[in-house]
Amino acid sequence: MSGIEGKVVAITGAGGGIGEASALLLAERGAKVVLGARRADRLEDVARRIGENGGEAAWIRTDVTRREDLAGLVGLARERFGRLDVLVSNAGVGPISPLDDLRVEDWEQMIDVNLKGVLYGIADALPVFREQGSGQFVNIVSTAGLRITPLMAVYAATKNAVRTVSEGLRQEAGDSLRVTVVSPGFVHTDFADGIPGPEARAQTLGTRDRIAIPPRAVARAVAFAVEQPDAVDVGDIVVRPTAQD
């Protein structure tokens, strides 16, 4: 199958930001979307808007740190639409801080959400893709892993771990599965809300408000990867503001 129309796409972190924008854009282009995030009210709102625009959407509360929740997301796609064509692993957190602050619980949260959450998705979607003989993983990482900067050591490490896993998965996938990594730069989302230090939060918000691109810009990159013919595997896409270093 080529193009987007008719494909079943599951998206984590679909209650806002890049996940929400991707769900709306893919649904506009004919995909059947299955939405997962922790906040049910946001998922319900996104699904409602898709339905009002003539699209098809299902949703289920999904905490990617819980393996059973990813199984539920994949299961809902198959139950509602009969298959799963694409898994977009977008859920992520970024409570960045200096390593000297020793915010070990924040480090663990980033590992659990940003890395283990992607691995759990692979664990549940990969057998389905193998059974179908087709499927695509789209993993959202970050330009933070391409240019390491202060405060972001652990966050960047989790994103680069996903980059490494994705490349290994691509090499193991054979000729029937596709793996894409999308690395956004500064995007106008609520990322800064999770930063514990007031100075770092203010700095991030200032940069965001000055140069950030809208989530839909990243959604278009996701759509570009998804719409390619089955024999075309788009490996890496970097989407950043032209003003970003």
Describe the structure.
By secondary structure, the protein is α/β, with parallel strands linked by helices. The protein is 48% helix and 16% strand. The protein has a 7-stranded parallel sheet with strand order 3-2-1-4-5-6-7, with helices on both faces. It is globular.
In a nutshell, what does this entry contain?
By secondary structure, the protein is α/β, with parallel strands linked by helices.
The low-confidence runs, each spanning 5 or more residues with pLDDT under 50, are: none
The overall pLDDT, averaged over residues, is 96
Count every helix, treating DSSP H or I runs of 4 or more residues as helices: 7
**Would you list the SSEs in sequence order as H and E?**
EHEHEHEHEHEHHE
Strands, total number: 7
The amount of helix comes to: 40-55%
Q: What is the global morphology?
A: globular
Radius of gyration: 17 Å
Strand order of the largest sheet: 3-2-1-4-5-6-7
Distance between the termini: 38 Å
Q: Tell me the β content.
A: 15-25%
Topology:
Layout: E1 8-12, H1 17-28, E2 32-37, H2 40-52, E3 56-61, H3 67-81, E4 86-89, H4 104-132, E5 135-140, H5 153-173, E6 177-184, H6 198-211, H7 215-227, E7 236-239
Helix pairs in contact: 1-7, 3-4, 4-5
Features:
alpha/beta, 48% helix, 16% strand
